[in-house]
């Protein structure tokens, strides 16, 4: 598919892949190749690093419940008690996603109008304040209500970042950038346990128990980074020259022309509800969303329950469990970048997802069924790497196969929305009544991986057939207006 995809585009769209992995379109440009690479790298440092750091704190704030739970929160607030067949702890984890899912589609419209700097920095500071409030929760009801508010505020962050990144890069530059973005986010999962263990040592200070300090200190850090983010974040390419000391108009024009040569949708379109919703008619979009659901079911299950599993299933102490969360995520970062690099270099998306899911299936099987705790812990490495590496891989898979600003916005919201549904599932698969083995949860994770393999196979077959029809001139792929540039092919 890699060579086919390039050869079938118009001559003006053929790409030269440079040593650093970035691609430059072969068209008239006032900048030399070296100057072009410098501009791209400047965007990487300013855009990818900034949204990655903010996502790091977002993921930490969203998933620090597991650390707080074994630090005394469950006992103090009575969260181990059941509500029907579900524990109050599971309810607290999943109520976040009720608003997180609902408020994502409008968020991608709002960010286009308000701009990323204003919108994203505001919601980061606001949810930081909510996190501080969680540290003073005195009951299950208060904590659950604050989690609902947290879902409203965080709803706009991830889809807006996915959408923003996709507007800056060409289709075969985006995989590595999504990987770095998510790697920085994964640092939260790697370091959260160690940080939480340190904050637990504040137990008794100012009359507050250790788990409360986890929320208070991390919430204050979130507020600080949200304020800094206002100056660090950049706008969409068509407004990039307005971001202080970033790109001038000539450089912004180069980026817009570069993306237009690749897929023809860099310039903003007037909002049209019909165009926005029309993306839902493409069955592939729901296939991508289902893959993301399957992936996030596993990643959230790990985020919410891994310290608990390490303690109750593998026999590690509370302190050791907090710290042993870090190494699997560090290993996941290596696999994540390697697969992102390979996907961009060889123009592959589906095979990367298949590799990740096979890794996840092997790891989950070892985690659940080997007799040795040490070997089961090795399985955690494979499961964590496969599941988390699939997040940027799925985002790249979708970004490569759609065109149009508002379809892109709709699809970002749909993808991440289904990821939120996966968060609900991930918060429920490991039930306290199934401990210490948690076998039903492990079976559910394996089933999600197997379903992903089936969906990737179906999308690949459909994309291959559509590309062949386009080659014969029977159809035009992803055509969205009269000025559309032809020659687009699906990536698989």
TrEMBL record:
Presence of the UniProt keyword Membrane in the record: yes
Pfam family, one: MFS_1
Location of this chain's protein in the cell: Membrane
Transmembrane helix recorded as keyword: yes
Any GO CC annotation of this UniProt entry: membrane
Region Disordered, residue ranges: 1-26
Positions with biased composition (Basic and acidic residues): 1-19
Protein's membrane topology: Multi-pass membrane protein
InterPro entries: MFS (IPR011701), MFS_dom (IPR020846), MFS_trans_sf (IPR036259)
Segments crossing the lipid bilayer: 47-71, 91-111, 118-137, 143-166, 178-199, 211-233, 285-310, 316-338, 350-369, 375-397, 409-429, 441-462
PROSITE patterns attached to this UniProt entry: MFS
Keywords in alphabetical order: Membrane, Transmembrane, Transmembrane helix, Transport
Ranges where the Major facilitator superfamily (MFS) profile domain occurs: 47-464
One function term, GO molecular function aspect: transmembrane transporter activity
Name assigned to this protein: MFS general substrate transporter
Species: Ophiobolus disseminans
Highest classification ranks of the organism: Eukaryota, Fungi, Dikarya, Ascomycota, Pezizomycotina
């Amino acid at each position: 598919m890699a060579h086919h995809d390039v050869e079938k585009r118009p001559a003006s769209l053929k790409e030269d892949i440079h040593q650093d992995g970035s691609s430059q379109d072969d068209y008239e440009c006032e900048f030399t190749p070296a100057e072009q690479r410098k501009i791209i790298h400047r965007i990487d440092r300013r855009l990818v690093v900034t949204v990655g750091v903010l996502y790091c704190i977002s993921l930490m704030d969203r998933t620090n419940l597991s650390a707080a739970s074994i630090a005394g929160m469950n006992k103090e607030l009575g969260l181990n008690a059941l509500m029907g067949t579900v524990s109050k702890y599971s309810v607290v984890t999943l109520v976040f996603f009720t608003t997180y899912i609902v408020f994502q589609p409008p968020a991608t419209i709002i960010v286009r109008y308000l701009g990323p700097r204003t919108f994203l920095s505001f919601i980061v500071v606001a949810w930081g304040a909510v996190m501080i409030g969680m540290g003073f929760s005195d009951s299950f009801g208060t904590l659950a209500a604050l989690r609902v508010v947290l879902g409203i505020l965080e709803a706009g962050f991830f889809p807006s970042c996915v959408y923003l990144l996709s507007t800056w890069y060409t289709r075969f530059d985006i995989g590595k950038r999504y990987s770095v973005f998510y790697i920085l986010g994964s640092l939260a999962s790697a370091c959260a346990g160690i940080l939480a263990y340190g904050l637990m040592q504040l137990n008794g200070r100012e009359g507050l128990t250790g788990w409360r300090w986890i929320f208070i200190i991390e919430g204050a850090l979130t507020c600080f980074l949200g304020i800094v983010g206002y100056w660090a974040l950049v706008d969409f390419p068509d407004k990039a020259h307005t971001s202080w000391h970033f790109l001038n108009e000539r450089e912004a024009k180069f980026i817009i022309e570069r993306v237009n040569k690749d897929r023809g949708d860099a310039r903003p379109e007037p909002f049209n509800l019909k165009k926005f919703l029309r993306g839902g008619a493409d069955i592939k979009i729901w296939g991508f969303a289902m893959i993301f659901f399957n992936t996030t079911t596993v990643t959230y299950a790990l985020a919410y329950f891994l310290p608990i599993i390490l303690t109750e299933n593998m026999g590690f102490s509370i302190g050791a469990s907090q710290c042993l969360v870090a190494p699997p995520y560090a290993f996941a970062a290596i696999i994540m970048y390697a697969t992102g690099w390979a996907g961009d270099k060889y123009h592959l998306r589906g095979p990367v997802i298949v590799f990740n899911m096979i890794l996840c299936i092997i790891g989950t099987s070892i985690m659940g069924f080997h007799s040795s705790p040490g070997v089961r812990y090795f399985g955690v490495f494979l499961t964590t790497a496969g599941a988390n590496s699939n997040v940027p891989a799925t985002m790249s898979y979708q970004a490569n196969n759609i065109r149009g600003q508002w379809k892109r916005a709709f699809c970002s919201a749909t993808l991440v929305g289904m990821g939120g549904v996966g968060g609900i599932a991930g918060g429920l698969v490991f039930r306290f009544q199934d401990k210490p083995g948690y076998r039903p949860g492990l079976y559910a994770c394996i089933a999600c991986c197997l379903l992903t393999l089936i969906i990737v196979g179906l999308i690949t077959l459909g994309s291959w057939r559509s590309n062949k029809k386009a080659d014969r001139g029977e159809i035009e792929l992803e055509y969205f207006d009269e000025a559309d540039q032809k020659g687009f092919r699906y990536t698989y």
